[in-house]
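hey
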């Protein structure tokens, strides 16, 4: 069965068409006129892509913009699905008086038996606006997720990453998704805006600051597993080079994200690291 992933990113819209569990056979993207764009810019870009590339009509897996969604990772005791959903809603509810829609993805189990949960939330008003946009495009919604979930699936299914502790930095224009994993278990995730494009010299210090924040988190959580590798994606190696000296001083080696073995089909000449949402969206 065909799957269509529609990813609304900070500075562009990406679409991937493929088969779940197999891979992607079509990719296309359109940059926004203004980064961090409003709903009408995402809609105009998506409308252009569907017309320009004659994309299939149908139901899409919508990847929400990182700027419109909140994420948290925490542990909960084993419980029935209904109680778990209510517990996640309660954990995510505190954001002023505005109504939230919250969901969760189980991402592992602690040695103590506690469940590790990735929880996400979005303002109900923002979600309604995006669903209306999908309907105006003549499409349906097969599912809704946040950027960290497709990335986590890639981490889970990439042997080199899931067998070690590492930091992952994924650039979305001037936004950064930072993830800490330990043997395939996601321990930390944060989405933030940088002052400049990925890896630009002007904000190399900002990127080093995010890595230092992860190291402080590890110290507070008393995590002692060896940690010396950073994987990055979404920017060219030359752009990232400005960060390398600072990362070396912290004891890190920085390398591009390896290819996920579970993605057996991918368009020739394309780097999977530039299409994380589309590639991860094809994983079950």
């Amino acid at each position: 069965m065909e799957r269509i992933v529609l990813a609304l990113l900070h500075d562009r819209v990406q679409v991937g068409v493929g088969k779940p569990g197999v891979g992607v056979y079509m990719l296309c993207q359109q940059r926004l006129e203004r980064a961090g764009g409003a709903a009408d810019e995402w809609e105009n870009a998506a409308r252009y892509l569907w017309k320009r590339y004659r994309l299939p009509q149908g139901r899409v897996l919508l990847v929400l913009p990182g700027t419109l969604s909140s994420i948290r990772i925490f542990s909960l005791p084993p419980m029935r699905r209904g109680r778990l959903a209510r517990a996640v809603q309660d954990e995510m509810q505190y954001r002023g008086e505005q109504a939230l829609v919250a969901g969760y993805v189980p991402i592992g189990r602690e040695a103590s038996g506690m469940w590790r949960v990735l929880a996400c939330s979005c303002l109900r008003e923002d979600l309604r606006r995006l669903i209306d946009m999908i309907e105006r495009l003549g499409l349906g919604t097969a599912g809704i997720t946040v950027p960290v979930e497709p990335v986590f699936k890639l981490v889970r299914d990439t042997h080199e990453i899931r067998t070690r502790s590492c930091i992952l930095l994924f650039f979305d224009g001037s936004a950064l998704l930072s993830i800490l994993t330990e043997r395939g278990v996601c321990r930390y995730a944060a989405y933030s805006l940088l002052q400049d494009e990925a890896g630009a010299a002007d904000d190399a210090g900002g990127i080093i600051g995010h890595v230092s924040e992860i190291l402080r988190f590890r110290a507070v959580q008393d995590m002692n597993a060896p940690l010396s590798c950073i994987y990055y994606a979404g920017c060219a190696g030359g752009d990232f080079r400005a960060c390398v000296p600072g990362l070396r001083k912290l004891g890190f080696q920085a390398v591009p994200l390896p290819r996920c073995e579970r993605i057996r089909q991918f368009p020739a000449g394309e780097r999977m690291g530039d299409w994380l949402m589309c590639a991860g969206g094809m994983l079950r």
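The first helix runs from residue 39 to 53. The radius of gyration is 18 Å.
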